[in-house]
Amino acid sequence: MGDTTEFTWEQWFGVLLLAGVGVLILDVLRRLVVGDLGVSTFSTFLWRGLVDGLIIGLAAVGLSMTYSILRFANFSHGDLVTTGAFTGWTAAWLIGGAGVTGLGSRLLLNADGSTSARELNLHVYAEPVAIVAGLVIAAAATVLVALAIDKLVYKRMRDAGGIPLLIASVGVALALRYVIVFFYGERTRGIVRSSPSIDHSLLFWTDSLVVHELVMVVSAVSLMLGLHGLLQYTKLGTAMRAMADNKDLALITGIPTERVILATWVIGAGLTGVAGYLIVLEQETLNFNTGWFLLLLIFAAVILGGIGSIYGAIAGGLIIGLADNMMLVWISGDLTRVAAFLLMILIFIFRPQGLFGGVETA
Amino acid sequence: MLTVDGLDAGYGDLQVLHDIDLEVDSDEYVAIVGPNGAGKSTVMKSVFGLTTYMGGSVEFQSREISGRRPEEIITHSIGYVPQNDNVFPSLSVRENLEMGAYILDEVPEDALEDVFDRFPILRERQDQTAGSMSGGQQQMVAMGRALMLEPDLLLLDEPSAGLAPDLVSDMFDRVDAINDDGTAVLIVEQNAKETLGRCDRGYVLVGGENRYEDDGDALLGDEQVRRDFLGG
Fold first, then answer.
1. Which residues in chain A come in under a pLDDT of 50?
2. Residue A153, H or E segment
3. B2-77+152-229: in CATH 3.40.50.300
4. Where are the transmembrane segments (chain A) (predicted)?
5. Are strands B184-188 and B29-33 parallel, antiparallel or unpaired?
6. What range defines the domain where residue A207 resides?
7. How many CB atoms are located within 10 Å of the residue B2 CB?
8. Whole-Å CA distances, A14 to A27, A28, A299, A316, A351
9. Residue A334 domain-assigned (yes or no)
10. Residue A144 within a domain
11. Is A191 a member of any domain?
12. pLDDT digits (tens, 9 = 90+) for A288-312
Protein backbone atom coordinates (compact mmCIF):
# COMPACT_ATOMS: atom_id res chain seq x y z
CA MET A 1 0.00 0.00 0.00
CA GLY A 2 2.85 2.37 0.65
CA ASP A 3 2.80 5.56 2.69
CA THR A 4 -0.44 6.82 4.15
CA THR A 5 0.06 9.96 2.12
CA GLU A 6 -0.20 7.90 -1.07
CA PHE A 7 -3.61 6.43 -0.23
CA THR A 8 -6.20 6.83 -2.93
CA TRP A 9 -9.63 7.85 -1.76
CA GLU A 10 -10.88 4.31 -2.37
CA GLN A 11 -8.24 3.05 0.03
CA TRP A 12 -9.23 5.68 2.58
CA PHE A 13 -12.78 4.52 2.12
CA GLY A 14 -11.69 0.94 2.74
CA VAL A 15 -9.89 1.99 5.91
CA LEU A 16 -13.01 3.83 7.07
CA LEU A 17 -15.13 0.79 6.28
CA LEU A 18 -12.83 -1.50 8.26
CA ALA A 19 -12.80 1.02 11.08
CA GLY A 20 -16.60 1.08 11.01
CA VAL A 21 -16.77 -2.69 11.22
CA GLY A 22 -14.19 -2.55 14.01
CA VAL A 23 -16.31 -0.05 15.95
CA LEU A 24 -19.36 -2.29 15.57
CA ILE A 25 -17.38 -5.29 16.86
CA LEU A 26 -16.16 -3.24 19.83
CA ASP A 27 -19.72 -2.12 20.45
CA VAL A 28 -20.86 -5.74 20.50
CA LEU A 29 -18.15 -6.50 23.05
CA ARG A 30 -19.19 -3.49 25.13
CA ARG A 31 -22.82 -4.56 25.06
CA LEU A 32 -21.82 -8.08 26.06
CA VAL A 33 -19.76 -6.81 29.00
CA VAL A 34 -22.33 -4.28 30.16
CA GLY A 35 -25.10 -6.81 29.75
CA ASP A 36 -27.16 -4.96 27.14
CA LEU A 37 -26.77 -7.97 24.93
CA GLY A 38 -27.21 -11.43 26.39
CA VAL A 39 -24.49 -13.91 25.55
CA SER A 40 -27.08 -16.40 24.40
CA THR A 41 -28.80 -13.84 22.14
CA PHE A 42 -25.45 -12.89 20.70
CA SER A 43 -24.43 -16.45 19.96
CA THR A 44 -27.84 -17.17 18.48
CA PHE A 45 -27.30 -14.32 16.04
CA LEU A 46 -23.81 -15.55 15.30
CA TRP A 47 -24.93 -19.13 14.77
CA ARG A 48 -27.86 -18.09 12.58
CA GLY A 49 -25.47 -15.96 10.54
CA LEU A 50 -23.16 -18.90 10.12
CA VAL A 51 -26.02 -21.19 9.07
CA ASP A 52 -27.39 -18.70 6.53
CA GLY A 53 -23.93 -17.75 5.32
CA LEU A 54 -22.78 -21.31 4.75
CA ILE A 55 -25.89 -22.27 2.82
CA ILE A 56 -25.69 -19.18 0.63
CA GLY A 57 -21.98 -19.84 0.18
CA LEU A 58 -22.54 -23.47 -0.79
CA ALA A 59 -25.18 -22.48 -3.33
CA ALA A 60 -22.92 -19.70 -4.61
CA VAL A 61 -19.94 -21.98 -5.21
CA GLY A 62 -21.67 -23.71 -8.11
CA LEU A 63 -22.55 -20.40 -9.73
CA SER A 64 -18.98 -19.17 -9.38
CA MET A 65 -17.61 -22.40 -10.84
CA THR A 66 -19.71 -22.26 -13.97
CA TYR A 67 -18.85 -18.59 -14.30
CA SER A 68 -15.13 -19.15 -14.00
CA ILE A 69 -15.03 -21.93 -16.60
CA LEU A 70 -17.86 -21.01 -18.98
CA ARG A 71 -17.76 -17.24 -18.54
CA PHE A 72 -21.42 -16.48 -18.15
CA ALA A 73 -23.77 -15.58 -15.31
CA ASN A 74 -26.15 -18.51 -15.06
CA PHE A 75 -29.58 -17.16 -14.12
CA SER A 76 -31.01 -20.66 -14.03
CA HIS A 77 -28.79 -21.41 -11.05
CA GLY A 78 -31.56 -20.64 -8.56
CA ASP A 79 -33.82 -23.14 -10.25
CA LEU A 80 -31.09 -25.76 -10.02
CA VAL A 81 -31.27 -25.15 -6.28
CA THR A 82 -35.02 -25.79 -6.49
CA THR A 83 -34.42 -28.87 -8.63
CA GLY A 84 -32.15 -30.31 -5.97
CA ALA A 85 -34.70 -29.57 -3.27
CA PHE A 86 -37.62 -31.21 -5.08
CA THR A 87 -35.77 -34.27 -6.36
CA GLY A 88 -33.94 -34.89 -3.11
CA TRP A 89 -36.99 -34.53 -0.90
CA THR A 90 -39.06 -36.67 -3.26
CA ALA A 91 -36.52 -39.42 -2.71
CA ALA A 92 -36.54 -38.83 1.03
CA TRP A 93 -40.35 -38.99 1.12
CA LEU A 94 -40.39 -42.14 -1.01
CA ILE A 95 -38.01 -43.87 1.38
CA GLY A 96 -38.96 -42.29 4.68
CA GLY A 97 -42.70 -42.23 4.13
CA ALA A 98 -43.16 -45.79 2.92
CA GLY A 99 -46.26 -47.32 4.50
CA VAL A 100 -47.40 -44.03 6.03
CA THR A 101 -49.10 -42.55 3.04
CA GLY A 102 -49.85 -43.36 -0.61
CA LEU A 103 -47.17 -43.55 -3.28
CA GLY A 104 -48.77 -40.78 -5.36
CA SER A 105 -48.76 -38.17 -2.66
CA ARG A 106 -45.19 -39.04 -1.72
CA LEU A 107 -44.01 -38.99 -5.35
CA LEU A 108 -45.36 -35.47 -5.84
CA LEU A 109 -44.43 -34.24 -2.37
CA ASN A 110 -48.00 -33.91 -1.20
CA ALA A 111 -49.14 -31.95 -4.27
CA ASP A 112 -52.71 -33.12 -3.55
CA GLY A 113 -52.61 -32.01 0.07
CA SER A 114 -53.62 -35.46 1.29
CA THR A 115 -50.92 -35.78 3.89
CA SER A 116 -48.58 -33.58 5.92
CA ALA A 117 -45.04 -33.35 7.15
CA ARG A 118 -46.39 -34.11 10.61
CA GLU A 119 -47.89 -37.38 9.40
CA LEU A 120 -44.65 -38.41 7.73
CA ASN A 121 -42.64 -37.39 10.78
CA LEU A 122 -39.51 -36.92 8.71
CA HIS A 123 -36.58 -35.66 10.73
CA VAL A 124 -33.00 -36.69 11.08
CA TYR A 125 -33.43 -38.90 14.16
CA ALA A 126 -36.55 -40.67 12.90
CA GLU A 127 -35.42 -41.30 9.33
CA PRO A 128 -31.65 -40.84 9.03
CA VAL A 129 -31.40 -43.19 6.05
CA ALA A 130 -34.10 -41.38 4.10
CA ILE A 131 -32.49 -38.01 4.82
CA VAL A 132 -29.04 -39.12 3.68
CA ALA A 133 -30.43 -40.92 0.62
CA GLY A 134 -32.35 -37.76 -0.29
CA LEU A 135 -29.13 -35.75 -0.05
CA VAL A 136 -27.35 -38.07 -2.46
CA ILE A 137 -30.29 -38.10 -4.88
CA ALA A 138 -30.53 -34.30 -4.74
CA ALA A 139 -26.91 -34.08 -5.91
CA ALA A 140 -27.25 -36.79 -8.56
CA ALA A 141 -30.53 -35.52 -10.02
CA THR A 142 -29.33 -31.92 -10.17
CA VAL A 143 -26.17 -33.07 -11.94
CA LEU A 144 -28.22 -34.97 -14.52
CA VAL A 145 -30.53 -32.00 -15.11
CA ALA A 146 -27.58 -29.61 -15.44
CA LEU A 147 -25.79 -31.91 -17.88
CA ALA A 148 -28.93 -32.33 -19.96
CA ILE A 149 -29.39 -28.55 -20.10
CA ASP A 150 -25.73 -28.06 -21.03
CA LYS A 151 -26.03 -30.55 -23.86
CA LEU A 152 -29.34 -29.13 -25.11
CA VAL A 153 -28.61 -25.43 -24.74
CA TYR A 154 -25.26 -24.15 -23.52
CA LYS A 155 -22.97 -26.48 -25.45
CA ARG A 156 -24.41 -25.25 -28.73
CA MET A 157 -23.53 -21.69 -27.74
CA ARG A 158 -20.14 -22.38 -26.13
CA ASP A 159 -18.39 -19.49 -27.87
CA ALA A 160 -21.41 -17.21 -28.21
CA GLY A 161 -20.20 -14.86 -25.46
CA GLY A 162 -21.50 -13.93 -22.03
CA ILE A 163 -24.62 -11.96 -22.93
CA PRO A 164 -26.35 -14.48 -25.28
CA LEU A 165 -25.59 -17.22 -22.77
CA LEU A 166 -27.01 -15.13 -19.94
CA ILE A 167 -30.23 -14.52 -21.88
CA ALA A 168 -30.47 -18.20 -22.73
CA SER A 169 -30.05 -19.04 -19.05
CA VAL A 170 -33.00 -16.80 -18.16
CA GLY A 171 -35.08 -18.89 -20.58
CA VAL A 172 -33.74 -22.06 -19.06
CA ALA A 173 -34.61 -20.74 -15.60
CA LEU A 174 -38.25 -20.16 -16.55
CA ALA A 175 -38.53 -23.49 -18.36
CA LEU A 176 -37.05 -25.40 -15.46
CA ARG A 177 -39.21 -23.62 -12.91
CA TYR A 178 -42.45 -24.32 -14.73
CA VAL A 179 -41.52 -27.93 -15.44
CA ILE A 180 -41.30 -28.21 -11.67
CA VAL A 181 -44.68 -26.45 -11.30
CA PHE A 182 -46.14 -28.78 -13.92
CA PHE A 183 -45.33 -31.80 -11.81
CA TYR A 184 -45.46 -30.49 -8.27
CA GLY A 185 -47.84 -27.55 -8.43
CA GLU A 186 -47.46 -24.11 -6.95
CA ARG A 187 -48.40 -24.87 -3.38
CA THR A 188 -45.96 -24.24 -0.56
CA ARG A 189 -45.77 -27.44 1.40
CA GLY A 190 -44.26 -28.53 4.68
CA ILE A 191 -41.59 -31.09 3.98
CA VAL A 192 -39.68 -31.75 7.16
CA ARG A 193 -40.77 -32.14 10.75
CA SER A 194 -39.39 -29.61 13.21
CA SER A 195 -35.85 -30.48 14.04
CA PRO A 196 -34.93 -32.13 17.31
CA SER A 197 -32.61 -30.10 19.52
CA ILE A 198 -29.60 -30.82 21.61
CA ASP A 199 -30.26 -29.29 24.99
CA HIS A 200 -26.84 -28.53 26.28
CA SER A 201 -24.78 -25.54 25.45
CA LEU A 202 -21.36 -26.80 24.52
CA LEU A 203 -21.33 -25.24 21.11
CA PHE A 204 -22.15 -21.57 21.10
CA TRP A 205 -23.82 -20.49 24.28
CA THR A 206 -27.34 -20.93 23.11
CA ASP A 207 -29.76 -22.87 25.23
CA SER A 208 -30.21 -25.52 22.62
CA LEU A 209 -28.82 -26.44 19.27
CA VAL A 210 -31.10 -27.30 16.36
CA VAL A 211 -29.87 -30.63 15.01
CA HIS A 212 -30.93 -29.96 11.42
CA GLU A 213 -28.91 -26.78 11.42
CA LEU A 214 -25.95 -28.67 12.78
CA VAL A 215 -26.35 -31.29 10.03
CA MET A 216 -26.44 -28.48 7.51
CA VAL A 217 -23.36 -26.74 8.84
CA VAL A 218 -21.36 -29.96 9.05
CA SER A 219 -22.40 -31.00 5.51
CA ALA A 220 -21.65 -27.59 4.03
CA VAL A 221 -18.26 -27.27 5.71
CA SER A 222 -17.23 -30.82 4.71
CA LEU A 223 -18.26 -30.26 1.11
CA MET A 224 -16.35 -26.99 1.00
CA LEU A 225 -13.25 -28.62 2.44
CA GLY A 226 -13.62 -31.46 -0.06
CA LEU A 227 -13.89 -28.99 -2.90
CA HIS A 228 -10.82 -27.15 -1.63
CA GLY A 229 -8.88 -30.42 -1.63
CA LEU A 230 -10.04 -31.25 -5.12
CA LEU A 231 -9.14 -27.85 -6.52
CA GLN A 232 -5.74 -27.58 -4.89
CA TYR A 233 -4.41 -31.11 -4.80
CA THR A 234 -5.77 -33.04 -7.79
CA LYS A 235 -4.89 -32.93 -11.45
CA LEU A 236 -8.52 -32.26 -12.38
CA GLY A 237 -8.74 -29.40 -9.90
CA THR A 238 -5.53 -27.86 -11.19
CA ALA A 239 -6.85 -28.17 -14.74
CA MET A 240 -10.06 -26.42 -13.65
CA ARG A 241 -8.08 -23.54 -12.19
CA ALA A 242 -5.91 -23.46 -15.30
CA MET A 243 -8.94 -23.26 -17.53
CA ALA A 244 -10.49 -20.54 -15.39
CA ASP A 245 -7.23 -18.61 -15.86
CA ASN A 246 -6.88 -18.98 -19.60
CA LYS A 247 -9.05 -21.22 -21.72
CA ASP A 248 -7.00 -20.79 -24.92
CA LEU A 249 -3.77 -21.69 -23.20
CA ALA A 250 -5.46 -24.68 -21.58
CA LEU A 251 -6.46 -25.90 -25.01
CA ILE A 252 -2.96 -25.69 -26.49
CA THR A 253 -1.49 -27.25 -23.35
CA GLY A 254 -3.49 -30.37 -24.08
CA ILE A 255 -6.04 -30.01 -21.27
CA PRO A 256 -9.25 -31.68 -22.49
CA THR A 257 -11.43 -28.61 -22.10
CA GLU A 258 -14.80 -30.25 -22.75
CA ARG A 259 -14.04 -32.85 -20.10
CA VAL A 260 -13.16 -30.12 -17.63
CA ILE A 261 -16.44 -28.37 -18.45
CA LEU A 262 -18.27 -31.62 -17.79
CA ALA A 263 -16.54 -32.00 -14.43
CA THR A 264 -17.41 -28.39 -13.61
CA TRP A 265 -21.10 -29.04 -14.19
CA VAL A 266 -20.98 -32.26 -12.21
CA ILE A 267 -19.32 -30.69 -9.18
CA GLY A 268 -21.04 -27.31 -9.39
CA ALA A 269 -24.51 -28.73 -9.93
CA GLY A 270 -23.99 -31.43 -7.32
CA LEU A 271 -23.13 -28.85 -4.66
CA THR A 272 -26.03 -26.68 -5.80
CA GLY A 273 -28.50 -29.55 -5.52
CA VAL A 274 -27.23 -30.37 -2.05
CA ALA A 275 -27.58 -26.71 -1.06
CA GLY A 276 -31.22 -26.74 -2.20
CA TYR A 277 -31.86 -29.91 -0.26
CA LEU A 278 -30.24 -28.58 2.92
CA ILE A 279 -32.14 -25.29 2.73
CA VAL A 280 -35.37 -27.26 3.00
CA LEU A 281 -33.98 -29.32 5.87
CA GLU A 282 -33.43 -26.07 7.70
CA GLN A 283 -36.51 -24.03 6.71
CA GLU A 284 -38.81 -27.09 6.61
CA THR A 285 -40.95 -25.84 3.74
CA LEU A 286 -40.57 -25.78 -0.02
CA ASN A 287 -42.16 -24.23 -3.05
CA PHE A 288 -41.23 -23.74 -6.66
CA ASN A 289 -39.78 -20.28 -6.00
CA THR A 290 -37.44 -21.34 -3.21
CA GLY A 291 -34.29 -21.20 -5.34
CA TRP A 292 -35.36 -18.23 -7.43
CA PHE A 293 -35.84 -16.08 -4.33
CA LEU A 294 -32.43 -17.17 -3.10
CA LEU A 295 -30.73 -16.22 -6.37
CA LEU A 296 -30.38 -12.55 -5.42
CA LEU A 297 -28.50 -13.47 -2.26
CA ILE A 298 -26.41 -15.99 -4.20
CA PHE A 299 -25.45 -13.40 -6.79
CA ALA A 300 -24.70 -10.93 -4.02
CA ALA A 301 -22.33 -13.44 -2.42
CA VAL A 302 -20.65 -14.29 -5.71
CA ILE A 303 -20.12 -10.68 -6.74
CA LEU A 304 -19.05 -9.66 -3.26
CA GLY A 305 -16.39 -12.35 -3.23
CA GLY A 306 -15.24 -11.54 -6.76
CA ILE A 307 -17.14 -13.23 -9.55
CA GLY A 308 -15.51 -16.46 -10.62
CA SER A 309 -13.65 -16.97 -7.36
CA ILE A 310 -14.81 -20.05 -5.47
CA TYR A 311 -13.30 -19.03 -2.15
CA GLY A 312 -14.74 -15.58 -2.72
CA ALA A 313 -18.22 -17.08 -3.11
CA ILE A 314 -17.89 -18.83 0.25
CA ALA A 315 -16.56 -15.68 1.92
CA GLY A 316 -19.26 -13.58 0.26
CA GLY A 317 -21.97 -15.96 1.47
CA LEU A 318 -20.64 -15.79 5.02
CA ILE A 319 -20.45 -11.99 4.96
CA ILE A 320 -24.02 -11.68 3.68
CA GLY A 321 -25.33 -14.26 6.17
CA LEU A 322 -23.47 -12.84 9.14
CA ALA A 323 -24.30 -9.22 8.32
CA ASP A 324 -27.94 -10.11 7.81
CA ASN A 325 -28.13 -11.65 11.29
CA MET A 326 -25.65 -9.65 13.34
CA MET A 327 -27.35 -6.39 12.38
CA LEU A 328 -30.18 -7.51 14.67
CA VAL A 329 -28.01 -6.23 17.50
CA TRP A 330 -28.68 -2.67 16.35
CA ILE A 331 -31.68 -2.63 14.06
CA SER A 332 -34.94 -4.47 13.67
CA GLY A 333 -35.37 -7.56 11.57
CA ASP A 334 -37.09 -5.81 8.68
CA LEU A 335 -34.01 -3.75 7.96
CA THR A 336 -31.20 -6.28 8.32
CA ARG A 337 -31.27 -7.28 4.69
CA VAL A 338 -31.05 -3.64 3.71
CA ALA A 339 -27.99 -3.40 5.93
CA ALA A 340 -26.44 -6.51 4.36
CA PHE A 341 -26.83 -5.14 0.86
CA LEU A 342 -25.66 -1.71 1.96
CA LEU A 343 -22.50 -3.33 3.27
CA MET A 344 -22.11 -5.01 -0.10
CA ILE A 345 -22.41 -1.69 -1.92
CA LEU A 346 -19.91 -0.07 0.43
CA ILE A 347 -17.41 -2.86 -0.16
CA PHE A 348 -17.81 -2.38 -3.91
CA ILE A 349 -16.93 1.28 -3.67
CA PHE A 350 -13.48 0.42 -2.47
CA ARG A 351 -13.08 -2.95 -4.21
CA PRO A 352 -15.20 -3.01 -7.39
CA GLN A 353 -13.65 -6.33 -8.45
CA GLY A 354 -14.90 -8.03 -5.27
CA LEU A 355 -12.92 -9.18 -2.27
CA PHE A 356 -11.13 -12.05 -4.01
CA GLY A 357 -11.45 -10.73 -7.56
CA GLY A 358 -8.24 -10.74 -9.55
CA VAL A 359 -6.29 -12.27 -6.67
CA GLU A 360 -6.06 -15.96 -7.45
CA THR A 361 -8.10 -19.17 -7.22
CA ALA A 362 -10.56 -20.56 -9.68
CA MET B 1 11.62 -32.94 -39.85
CA LEU B 2 9.07 -30.16 -40.39
CA THR B 3 8.17 -29.47 -43.98
CA VAL B 4 5.64 -26.80 -44.85
CA ASP B 5 4.79 -26.87 -48.53
CA GLY B 6 2.61 -24.31 -50.29
CA LEU B 7 0.62 -23.56 -47.16
CA ASP B 8 -2.42 -21.29 -47.40
CA ALA B 9 -4.03 -20.39 -44.08
CA GLY B 10 -5.81 -17.63 -42.22
CA TYR B 11 -8.62 -16.86 -39.82
CA GLY B 12 -12.18 -17.63 -40.86
CA ASP B 13 -12.59 -16.23 -44.37
CA LEU B 14 -9.52 -14.04 -44.16
CA GLN B 15 -6.49 -15.56 -45.85
CA VAL B 16 -3.23 -14.38 -44.29
CA LEU B 17 -0.65 -16.82 -45.62
CA HIS B 18 -0.08 -17.43 -49.31
CA ASP B 19 1.91 -20.38 -50.53
CA ILE B 20 4.34 -20.60 -47.64
CA ASP B 21 7.29 -23.01 -47.91
CA LEU B 22 9.38 -23.67 -44.86
CA GLU B 23 11.61 -26.39 -43.51
CA VAL B 24 13.13 -27.23 -40.16
CA ASP B 25 15.59 -30.13 -39.84
CA SER B 26 16.13 -32.02 -36.62
CA ASP B 27 18.37 -30.03 -34.27
CA GLU B 28 18.08 -26.97 -36.49
CA TYR B 29 17.43 -23.43 -35.26
CA VAL B 30 15.28 -21.54 -37.73
CA ALA B 31 13.97 -18.00 -37.49
CA ILE B 32 11.11 -16.22 -39.18
CA VAL B 33 11.57 -12.47 -39.33
CA GLY B 34 9.79 -9.71 -41.17
CA PRO B 35 7.81 -6.53 -40.68
CA ASN B 36 4.73 -6.22 -38.49
CA GLY B 37 1.67 -7.89 -39.93
CA ALA B 38 3.69 -10.12 -42.23
CA GLY B 39 2.00 -13.22 -40.87
CA LYS B 40 4.99 -14.49 -38.89
CA SER B 41 2.95 -15.62 -35.91
CA THR B 42 0.30 -17.01 -38.21
CA VAL B 43 2.83 -19.43 -39.70
CA MET B 44 3.58 -20.73 -36.27
CA LYS B 45 -0.08 -20.95 -35.26
CA SER B 46 -0.82 -22.77 -38.50
CA VAL B 47 1.82 -25.41 -37.73
CA PHE B 48 0.15 -25.86 -34.35
CA GLY B 49 -3.37 -26.12 -35.77
CA LEU B 50 -4.67 -22.80 -34.45
CA THR B 51 -5.68 -21.23 -37.77
CA THR B 52 -8.08 -22.05 -40.57
CA TYR B 53 -6.35 -24.40 -42.97
CA MET B 54 -6.87 -23.46 -46.62
CA GLY B 55 -4.48 -25.61 -48.63
CA GLY B 56 -0.97 -26.96 -48.97
CA SER B 57 0.69 -29.35 -46.61
CA VAL B 58 2.37 -29.40 -43.20
CA GLU B 59 4.37 -32.52 -42.61
CA PHE B 60 6.09 -33.32 -39.33
CA GLN B 61 8.30 -36.38 -38.95
CA SER B 62 6.80 -37.78 -42.16
CA ARG B 63 3.27 -37.34 -40.85
CA GLU B 64 0.74 -34.95 -42.36
CA ILE B 65 -0.52 -32.67 -39.60
CA SER B 66 -2.24 -29.88 -41.53
CA GLY B 67 -5.79 -29.29 -40.38
CA ARG B 68 -5.24 -31.22 -37.13
CA ARG B 69 -6.33 -29.77 -33.79
CA PRO B 70 -3.72 -28.48 -31.29
CA GLU B 71 -4.64 -31.10 -28.68
CA GLU B 72 -3.61 -33.74 -31.21
CA ILE B 73 -0.52 -31.97 -32.48
CA ILE B 74 0.83 -31.66 -28.96
CA THR B 75 1.04 -35.46 -28.85
CA HIS B 76 3.31 -35.41 -31.92
CA SER B 77 6.26 -33.92 -30.05
CA ILE B 78 5.76 -30.27 -30.92
CA GLY B 79 5.80 -27.70 -28.15
CA TYR B 80 4.40 -24.19 -28.59
CA VAL B 81 4.97 -21.05 -26.57
CA PRO B 82 2.51 -18.31 -27.55
CA GLN B 83 3.56 -14.68 -27.43
CA ASN B 84 1.02 -13.35 -24.93
CA ASP B 85 -0.79 -14.80 -21.94
CA ASN B 86 1.42 -17.85 -22.00
CA VAL B 87 1.25 -18.81 -18.32
CA PHE B 88 -1.61 -19.64 -15.97
CA PRO B 89 -1.23 -16.67 -13.59
CA SER B 90 -3.08 -18.08 -10.57
CA LEU B 91 -1.33 -21.44 -10.69
CA SER B 92 2.00 -21.97 -8.99
CA VAL B 93 5.10 -22.29 -11.14
CA ARG B 94 5.19 -26.01 -10.47
CA GLU B 95 1.51 -26.42 -11.38
CA ASN B 96 2.11 -24.54 -14.62
CA LEU B 97 4.86 -26.99 -15.49
CA GLU B 98 2.74 -29.97 -14.47
CA MET B 99 -0.07 -28.79 -16.72
CA GLY B 100 2.42 -28.90 -19.58
CA ALA B 101 2.45 -32.66 -19.17
CA TYR B 102 -1.30 -32.98 -18.66
CA ILE B 103 -1.67 -35.57 -21.41
CA LEU B 104 0.65 -37.95 -19.53
CA ASP B 105 -0.75 -40.06 -16.70
CA GLU B 106 2.07 -39.14 -14.36
CA VAL B 107 4.09 -35.98 -14.01
CA PRO B 108 7.41 -36.84 -15.75
CA GLU B 109 9.82 -36.19 -12.87
CA ASP B 110 12.97 -36.22 -15.01
CA ALA B 111 11.52 -33.73 -17.48
CA LEU B 112 10.55 -31.55 -14.52
CA GLU B 113 14.08 -31.84 -13.11
CA ASP B 114 15.52 -30.90 -16.51
CA VAL B 115 13.36 -27.79 -16.63
CA PHE B 116 14.40 -26.87 -13.09
CA ASP B 117 18.07 -27.41 -14.01
CA ARG B 118 17.63 -25.27 -17.09
CA PHE B 119 15.83 -22.49 -15.20
CA PRO B 120 17.04 -22.70 -11.57
CA ILE B 121 14.92 -19.69 -10.58
CA LEU B 122 11.84 -21.79 -11.29
CA ARG B 123 12.96 -24.45 -8.82
CA GLU B 124 13.54 -21.74 -6.26
CA ARG B 125 10.12 -20.20 -6.84
CA GLN B 126 8.13 -23.30 -7.69
CA ASP B 127 5.41 -22.56 -5.14
CA GLN B 128 4.97 -18.93 -6.13
CA THR B 129 2.06 -18.08 -8.44
CA ALA B 130 3.23 -17.52 -12.00
CA GLY B 131 1.28 -14.26 -12.19
CA SER B 132 3.41 -12.76 -9.44
CA MET B 133 6.68 -13.27 -11.35
CA SER B 134 8.49 -10.85 -13.64
CA GLY B 135 8.03 -10.90 -17.41
CA GLY B 136 11.33 -12.67 -17.98
CA GLN B 137 10.55 -15.31 -15.39
CA GLN B 138 7.07 -15.85 -16.83
CA GLN B 139 8.73 -16.44 -20.18
CA MET B 140 10.82 -19.15 -18.52
CA VAL B 141 7.69 -20.70 -17.02
CA ALA B 142 6.08 -20.70 -20.46
CA MET B 143 9.11 -22.30 -22.10
CA GLY B 144 9.43 -24.78 -19.27
CA ARG B 145 5.79 -25.76 -19.68
CA ALA B 146 6.33 -26.38 -23.39
CA LEU B 147 9.45 -28.45 -22.63
CA MET B 148 7.68 -30.79 -20.21
CA LEU B 149 6.80 -33.21 -22.99
CA GLU B 150 10.41 -33.08 -24.23
CA PRO B 151 9.37 -32.05 -27.73
CA ASP B 152 11.52 -32.58 -30.84
CA LEU B 153 10.45 -29.17 -32.13
CA LEU B 154 9.82 -26.06 -30.06
CA LEU B 155 7.81 -23.18 -31.54
CA LEU B 156 8.62 -19.82 -29.92
CA ASP B 157 6.49 -16.79 -30.74
CA GLU B 158 8.39 -13.57 -30.01
CA PRO B 159 9.99 -14.67 -26.75
CA SER B 160 11.81 -11.33 -26.39
CA ALA B 161 8.65 -9.23 -26.67
CA GLY B 162 8.04 -7.17 -23.57
CA LEU B 163 11.34 -8.08 -21.92
CA ALA B 164 13.60 -5.44 -20.45
CA PRO B 165 16.54 -4.84 -22.83
CA ASP B 166 19.13 -6.35 -20.48
CA LEU B 167 17.13 -9.60 -20.29
CA VAL B 168 16.82 -10.07 -24.04
CA SER B 169 20.25 -11.52 -24.68
CA ASP B 170 19.92 -13.77 -21.63
CA MET B 171 16.69 -15.08 -23.10
CA PHE B 172 18.38 -15.75 -26.44
CA ASP B 173 21.19 -17.58 -24.63
CA ARG B 174 18.59 -19.86 -23.12
CA VAL B 175 17.07 -20.57 -26.51
CA ASP B 176 20.56 -21.39 -27.81
CA ALA B 177 21.01 -23.81 -24.93
CA ILE B 178 17.70 -25.53 -25.63
CA ASN B 179 18.74 -25.94 -29.25
CA ASP B 180 22.23 -27.17 -28.29
CA ASP B 181 20.60 -29.89 -26.23
CA GLY B 182 19.00 -31.32 -29.34
CA THR B 183 15.60 -29.64 -29.64
CA ALA B 184 14.88 -28.08 -33.02
CA VAL B 185 13.66 -24.48 -32.64
CA LEU B 186 11.42 -22.44 -34.90
CA ILE B 187 11.33 -18.88 -33.65
CA VAL B 188 9.37 -15.82 -34.71
CA GLU B 189 11.03 -12.55 -33.76
CA GLN B 190 10.75 -8.79 -34.08
CA ASN B 191 14.32 -8.58 -32.90
CA ALA B 192 15.66 -9.67 -36.28
CA LYS B 193 19.33 -8.77 -35.85
CA GLU B 194 19.80 -10.69 -32.66
CA THR B 195 17.86 -13.69 -33.95
CA LEU B 196 19.50 -13.89 -37.36
CA GLY B 197 22.89 -13.63 -35.72
CA ARG B 198 22.19 -16.73 -33.69
CA CYS B 199 20.02 -18.99 -35.84
CA ASP B 200 21.09 -21.51 -38.47
CA ARG B 201 18.69 -20.37 -41.11
CA GLY B 202 16.14 -17.62 -41.50
CA TYR B 203 13.09 -16.76 -43.52
CA VAL B 204 11.99 -13.24 -44.28
CA LEU B 205 8.25 -13.05 -44.52
CA VAL B 206 6.48 -10.11 -46.16
CA GLY B 207 2.76 -9.76 -46.75
CA GLY B 208 2.07 -13.37 -45.93
CA GLU B 209 4.60 -14.68 -48.47
CA ASN B 210 8.16 -15.97 -48.30
CA ARG B 211 10.49 -13.28 -49.61
CA TYR B 212 13.97 -14.50 -48.70
CA GLU B 213 15.45 -17.63 -47.28
CA ASP B 214 19.12 -18.10 -46.37
CA ASP B 215 21.62 -18.66 -43.59
CA GLY B 216 21.04 -16.26 -40.75
CA ASP B 217 24.38 -14.50 -41.27
CA ALA B 218 23.84 -14.32 -45.01
CA LEU B 219 20.47 -12.64 -44.49
CA LEU B 220 22.06 -10.23 -42.06
CA GLY B 221 24.71 -9.46 -44.66
CA ASP B 222 22.29 -9.05 -47.55
CA GLU B 223 21.99 -5.40 -48.32
CA GLN B 224 18.47 -5.63 -49.72
CA VAL B 225 17.20 -7.45 -46.64
CA ARG B 226 18.97 -5.07 -44.31
CA ARG B 227 17.63 -2.01 -46.04
CA ASP B 228 14.05 -3.21 -46.38
CA PHE B 229 13.44 -5.10 -43.18
CA LEU B 230 16.14 -4.69 -40.62
CA GLY B 231 16.20 -0.93 -40.49
CA GLY B 232 19.60 -0.33 -42.09
1. 1-3, 359-362
2. none
3. yes
4. 12-33, 45-70, 91-109, 129-149, 161-184, 209-231, 260-280, 292-320, 327-350
5. parallel
6. 60-306
7. 22
8. 20, 21, 22, 17, 8
9. no
10. yes
11. yes
12. 999 998 998 999 999 888 888 889 9
